[in-house]
Design goal:
It comes from Rhodoferax mekongensis. This protein is α+β, with helices and mostly antiparallel strands and about 100 residues long. It contains 4 helices and 4 strands, in the order E-H-H-E-H-H-E-E. It has a 4-stranded mixed β-sheet with strand order 1-3-4-2. The radius of gyration is 13 Å and the shape is globular.
Length: about 100
């Protein structure tokens, strides 16, 4: 399992810009934010989705996107938070239907 520090400043800025573009807390808006992030960035972790995209429960939004036909892979990654604590988190990668598609 790969170990990473928390989100880089550049990625954090990109995620914050997406959050600002899609305002709201309803499921549709959260899915739109997450999809935009997956189409724009190579990967998004549950940690980043919660913290930077303001998505309370990212696995539910991923399941809904999969139900809509998006192919999203889940990988595991060990992340060290700002508090210095290691957590195993899901990392989502859009395989089909986005800028990083690998059909």
């Amino acid at each position: 399992m790969q170990k990473n520090k928390a989100t880089s400043p550049e990625k954090k800025a990109a995620l914050e810009a997406i959050r600002a573009q899609f305002k709201g807390t309803d499921g549709d808006t959260q899915r739109a934010r997450l999809l935009e992030a997956l189409q724009t960035l190579p990967a998004v972790s549950t940690y980043e989705a919660r913290r930077e995209l303001d998505i309370y429960y990212p696995p539910a939004r991923i399941k809904e996107l999969r139900n809509e036909g998006y192919r999203i892979d889940t990988h595991r990654q060990l992340v060290t938070t700002e508090a210095g604590v290691d957590h195993s988190v899901g990392v989502y990668v859009l395989i089909q239907g986005g800028a990083h598609a690998q059909a």
